[in-house]
Design a protein that fits this description.
Blueprint (H helix, E strand, L loop, with lengths): L5 E4 L27 H8 L5 E7 L10 H17 L6 E5 L14 H10 L7 E4 L2 H9 L3 E5 L3 H6 L2 E3 L2 H31 L1
Parallel strand pairs: 1-2, 1-4, 2-3, 4-5, 5-6
């Protein structure tokens, strides 16, 4: 069986600017891509990774926004990403409040759903987020984790910390290139031994 690798992206604070005062993005008019995000998504979309967004959206359970409004935001977001050469393979969202489910991060339920839906090897996958809850969800399933931000606890807990999605994509690309080069050298070495 062939397993896929994935990059799991948080949404608010990674893809788009967060709403002020810990509020919610309730319409497409409130949605604003962070600088460099569309370019970063276009770059990583050229890889073999599946690209997922995993986002807590408790505003639905609190009655602040509807699921239809969220879907409208996501439809517009995906259109913009595609128009700029990128892709999102699936969006997983948790509409629940605290302690109401197994999918709200830091619980790894959304990662588990993607694993089941797309045959994902979580141990070979990445979680990128701007909150320690994102990092905890990734760690719970042995994903490699990248934190975007300046919180010292999250920086210490994550495998890597950077300042933007563009930097995260460059990091993943460089690590993959390094691993590919090491594997190629190992294969060439084995071939030389066999020939001898």
């Amino acid at each position: 069986m062939i397993f896929n690798k994935a990059i799991f992206l948080d949404r608010d604070g990674v893809i788009n600017k967060k709403a002020p005062d810990k509020g919610y993005i309730t319409s497409w008019d409130n949605f604003q891509f962070l600088p460099g995000v569309l370019k970063a998504l276009a770059k990583i979309s050229q890889s073999s990774y599946k690209i997922f967004i995993v986002t807590n959206q408790r505003g639905i359970s609190r009655g602040i926004m509807s699921e239809d409004a969220l879907k409208n935001i996501h439809n517009n977001m995906i259109t913009e990403i595609r128009n700029n050469g990128g892709r999102i393979d699936e969006i997983y969202y948790c509409p629940h409040g605290n302690n109401e489910c197994t999918c709200r991060k830091p619980l790894p339920g959304m990662l588990d759903n993607a694993k089941s839906d797309y045959n994902i090897s979580l141990e070979e996958s990445w979680v990128v987020g701007d909150s320690i809850t994102d990092i905890k969800a990734g760690k719970a399933r042995e994903c490699k984790t990248i934190y975007i931000g300046e919180d010292s606890e999250a920086m210490a807990f994550s495998d890597y910390s950077v300042d933007s999605l563009d930097s995260a994509v460059n990091l993943i690309s460089s690590i993959n290139l390094s691993l590919s080069s090491s594997t190629e050298r190992f294969i060439k070495k084995r071939r030389l031994i066999i020939k001898c």
